[in-house]
Amino acid sequence: MPDVEDRMPLTDPGDAECRSCRPETSAPTRDGPSGVEDAPACLIDTVDDVSKLSNKVGKNRGLHMEEKVSPPSSLEDKVKETMHNAFWNHLKEQLSATPPDFSCALELLKEIKEILLSLLLPRQSRLRSEIEEALDTELLNQKAEHGALNVPHLSKYILNMMTLLCAPVRDEAVQNLENITDPVRLLRGIFQVLGLMKMDMVNYTIQSLQPHLQEHSIQHERATFQELLNKQPSLLDHTTKWLTQAAADLTMPLPTCPDTLDSTSMASSSPNEAVSSPEPLSPTMVLSQGFLNLLLWDPENEEFPETLLMDRTRLQELESQLHQLTILASVLLVASSFAGSVLFGSPQFVDKLKHITKDLMEEFKSRPEEALQTVSEQVSQEIHQSLKNMGLAALSSDNTASLIGQLQNIAKKENCVRSVIDQRIHLFLKCCLVLGVQRSLLDLPGGLTVIEAELAELGQKFVSLTHHNQKVFGPYYTEILKTLVPPAQALDTEVESI
Hints:
single chain; mainly alpha; two-stranded antiparallel ribbon; flat
């Protein structure tokens, strides 16, 4: 069985000699649990540090558990596979013996019983009684002593119960088990599917608990900050300065840069552009601008807003991701102006160029010129080969030299293409704060459609972080913004939800 990444290890009978698997498994039943009160007691009991968990879940709306799958050639995978095979081979020898040895089989059935019971919700008392009766440990031991333990029959019962308890997404996996006739292979498959069912239940429970944990996190963080503020009244000085700068930025026009590419490739008339048009100052717009400014923060500036210190690492990660997307989109935009619409109409071709650029992102951090030189050469070769394969005219030597030169120039911070793309990604993020991620994706500015998936991920992370921060510190922001936004320009100075 693969392990569960981060916090929820799944064990296999092969992890210890003659010990049954313990793939802690659950899944939402078809009855559709209605709320947090239906969450399995065993899972609720594990939440011993509510503050820590609520903070993590509350800030990350997309938090979910995933299987941790080791690389096939890794030592960990080889050791695990060897141990598991040894256990299941041992079980096969026991069941094939004359008379059969049911010792390990009984342990497995006991584990499966516990797993099935853990899948049940408190109100499913009838199913609980049925499972207790069908897999009664004492009765199974008696049958084993008389050589009358029917493992295939019990496995069939277990499959029927799994069909009843699993989420619809696992129907096919359970149905595939019904075609397995070998009892050992069937038991092994049962444990694997139960592991997936557990993952489903864990993720469902996280979603069910999230509103409650998010509210707890908000109240806890705000109370903690207020205690510090009572002891240190100047604790909001940097936050005030940060919002003051954001308000000033909104009154300044965005810098412009003459386009050097074909006008159709850089043109954009999307709703996103409207977000940047001058409009009366409002608390929401000031706060949005403030959040955007955090993605341009000078690392040497120690006056970071006090209300965002806990999120500084995550913001730095988002800033790095934004920077990488700026380079990626810039490379693709320049390449598209030379490769043409035929090549860029192929998702496979675009993916190749993405991989070429992404593979050199780490090198770009320390050696941008060398990285872009390598990218330019590889992109040029890829365009040349793809045009040749499609029977199209290859780039002339002059066009090739121009392509390589323009790609290499992206390494410069003042590069026009890079500057425009950077502005448009920031504009997209601003639109995400105001309109939401999905609406912002409907009409992306020119040059960004090729990185739509990457932008969606970045936008969701950014919105999630800022939304939670605003929920926690909204009252403090409201008081500060009252001094920055004149009443005549804002009907309501209370910060609205972004």
